[in-house]
Amino acid sequence: MAPRLDFTSEAFFRDPPKAIATLRMSGPVVAIRFPLVGDVWITTTHEATAQVLKDGSNFTLRKEDGHVAGLRWWMPNCVRTIANNMLTMDEPDHTRLRSIVDEAFRRRATVAMEPRIRAIADGLADELFSAGSPADLVQRYARILPLAVISELLGLPLADRPRFIAWANTMSSLTNVASFFRLLFAFRKMRAYLERQLQIARVRGGDGLIAELVQVEREGGQITPDEMVSMVFLLLAAGSETTTHLISGSVYELLRNPGVRDWLAQDWSRVGLAVEEFLRFVSPVQFSKPRYVRRDIELAGVRLKKGDRVMVMLAAANMDLAVHERPESLDPARKPNRHLSFGTGIHFCLGHQLTRIEAACALEALFVRWTKLGFAVDVSQIHWRKRPGMRAIANLPVVPDGHGAAGSMMVRSQRAAC
């Protein structure tokens, strides 16, 4: 029997290697009950995870009737529309939609955006403590940077950025069925907003990926109006949310590990290598979307039946001793680094280049500007959102001089003495 783990608990998010090691003892494929999804099999090894992600004939994101594996019968139409994107599609629909957005990304050339991303990061780093100290690094830095970048990439108005931040915060609050229903109002507003932006681009044209997607549509690209909405939603949400938590999780690890921080500060050309390790070690996306088992099959020695559902645990694949030496340790110079944080197979992350550039620019800008950055509270007071499948620090209070945590500990000691 698999251990009963709470994948939304503080204990799990604070020390994933410990929980994963316990889970893996039950086998490479384990039956669990996952929040919002229900009964599923999960993979706990790199090999089993890669097999599921690459085998699109035996493990599909939809049933024969087209129903998405992760959607439940009680979920409303607005959610189904947004979920009808290339991340939930099998072949040939996946390639049809992926080719459209690939073309738009090629036109935009995300690598060429690095100077602009660096400028945005430098500006945000300069303003981190403009409203006072301590500052919440999640809200004032890690969330704003990727939202600013993807907004510019899409061609969305600068004035609308506060509403994107509010929507992102609402989505991050998803923890259970009750919070899911609270999200519906935000989903409806986002859908209406994106429909308006697409229509504006159809009438007026413009700059950015939205206008370029509309141009692809005008040139005969096979995409429906609902698929256009879900595509832009995917780029806006997925293009910012996971990077937010990669940046905040990486800063958390650097503040906890001064030796790693000093190693980076000695030579910032190493930051790309370090980002790969943060992708592996932080693993902001912990699980994949559920997949249906299309026929009776054996996966890593475990018999699965047709109709079962399976989710790959990316965080467990990234902590597999069979692939990574001392996987429970943060090693910024790790080579090779075979993490699966961007997935593999046909659904390999479209925005992997953008994510890597944003994380590298964010870390360098922050720690070059604030060389003595430190926790504003004791590390035990840092908490994670209780969101299943995503490792997301809720708030990360920091101070510019590195004395915040020590100061708070001193205050508690003085109060105890009194």
Topology:
Elements: H1 10-14, H2 16-24, E1 29-34, E2 38-43, H3 46-54, E3 59-60, H4 77-83, H5 93-108, H6 114-126, E4 135-136, H7 137-142, H8 144-154, H9 161-172, H10 177-204, H11 209-218, H12 225-256, H13 258-266, H14 271-282, E5 291-293, E6 297-299, E7 302-304, E8 309-312, H15 314-317, H16 352-369, E9 374-375, E10 397-399, H17 404-417
Helix pairs in contact: 5-11, 6-8, 6-16, 8-12, 10-11, 10-12, 12-14, 12-16, 14-16
Briefly, what is this?
The chain is an alpha+beta fold.
Widest beta sheet: strand line-up: 1-2-8-5-3
Helix content: 40-55%
User: Would you tell me the overall average pLDDT?
Assistant: 86
Question: What structural class do the secondary elements suggest?
Answer: alpha+beta
Order of helices and strands: HHEEHEHHHEHHHHHHHHEEEEHHEEH
DSSP strand content: 5-15%
Q: What distance lies between the first and last C-alpha atoms, to the nearest angstrom?
A: 50 Å
Largest sheet: 5 strands, mixed
Unreliable segments (pLDDT under 50, ≥5 consecutive)? 405-418
Report Rg: 22 Å
Total DSSP E strands = 10
Query: What is the molecular shape?
Result: globular
What is the helix tally? 17
Description of the structure:
- This protein is α+β, with helices and mostly antiparallel strands.
- 51% of the residues lie in helices and 8% in strands.
- The chain has helices at 10-14, 16-24, 46-54, 77-83, 93-108, 114-126, 137-142, 144-154, 161-172, 177-204, 209-218, 225-256, 258-266, 271-282, 314-317, 352-369, 404-417, and strands at 29-34, 38-43, 59-60, 135-136, 291-293, 297-299, 302-304, 309-312, 374-375, 397-399.
- The strands form 3 sheets. A 5-stranded mixed beta sheet has the order 1-2-8-5-3. A 3-stranded antiparallel beta sheet has the order 4-10-9. The protein has a two-stranded antiparallel ribbon with strand order 6-7.
- Strand 6 and strand 7 form a beta hairpin.
- The termini are far apart.
